[in-house]
Amino acid sequence: MIYHIIAIAIVMVWGGTFVNTKKLAEAGLNPESIFLLRFGIAYISIWFISPLKLFCRNWRDELWMFLLGIFGGSFFFFIQNYAIDVGRVTDVSFIVCTTPLVTVLLAILIYKSVKGSWLLFIGSFIALFGVGVVVYNGQFVLNIDPLGHLLALAASVSWAIYSLILKKITCRYSPIFVTRKIFFYGIITILPVFIVHPWNFPLSGFLDAQVWGNCVFLGFVASFLCFFGWNWVIEKLGALKASNYLYLNPVTTMLASLLFLDEPITVISFIGSLLILTGVFIANKSKTV
């Protein structure tokens, strides 16, 4: 039960980061700068509890860590942040929330041992429908945005790949070590982007409490603490069961919007939240691992 509670807490934090990211973007930070600050703070923080060991036992495992840094780090956050920048936040959050379903489909295609049960699919679709209800809040508008939608879908696939690779590697290394390697390779693989888009945010901007406050939250809480906790949860619950909790993201986004953006919660939002919780409960009753 403790792992399920931790998974819910982490996803609730991650659901609120859409607001933090939007605030930093409005302050003038571009997507790659937000990511670099986020993972930079997390990487410095994790060294206080991480073992001094620098490399994996062999080059194959080091390559897996490199891929984790890309699919769960630089590539995922870069394209998700750009999707938020060029598209509608509601569309992006909905598409990114298809990650659990994408993870299930990829796992079934890749691993012969994984077989999706009816409970898993029924629960996933109920939760996904609930996400749609919360995100669009009864005011569905068909707004075709090919670039934003494609970036959001790519982010969903990226996190699904990350989850499946993570399950493969966490059985051989501690969650702390794996998390530190993800931060490191995430930072290394985002640096080439600055050749094309150089850093342009003035250092004086960090004197603004809103800027450094959101950076610290994204780096220390949403990255350092939550990535470490999520890697631990994946090891204990498995990629498919843990990923189903990502459907809860819009619930936190809804609450954060109420608190920080003064957006009211409607009856439709409550109905959608109930559908999400029901779907997650059904999906986690399945035997799939």
List the helices and strands and how they pair.
Elements: H1 2-27, H2 31-46, H3 59-86, H4 89-96, H5 99-110, H6 118-136, H7 146-169, H8 175-190, H9 193-196, H10 209-237, H11 239-243, H12 249-260, H13 267-283
Helix pairs in contact: 1-10, 1-12, 2-3, 2-8, 2-10, 3-7, 3-8, 4-6, 4-7, 5-7, 6-13, 8-10
Question: Could you write a compact summary of the structure shown?
Answer:
With 289 residues, the protein is mainly α.
Description:
By secondary structure, the protein is mainly α. Helix content is 75%, strand content 0%. Helix 1 (2-27) crosses helix 12 (249-260).
Structural class: mainly alpha
Q: List segments where confidence is low: pLDDT < 50 over at least 5 consecutive residues.
A: 140-144
- Could you state the order of secondary-structure elements as H and E? HHHHHHHHHHHHH
Number of helices: 13
First and last CA, distance: 16 Å
Question: Can you count the beta strands?
Answer: 0
Provide the β-strand percentage band: under 5%
Spatial extent as radius of gyration: 18 Å
> What is the helix fraction of residues, given as a range?
over 70%
The shape is globular
Taking the sheet with the most strands, its summary is:
none
- Overall pLDDT confidence: 79
What are the key terms here?
289 residues, 13 helices, globular, mainly alpha
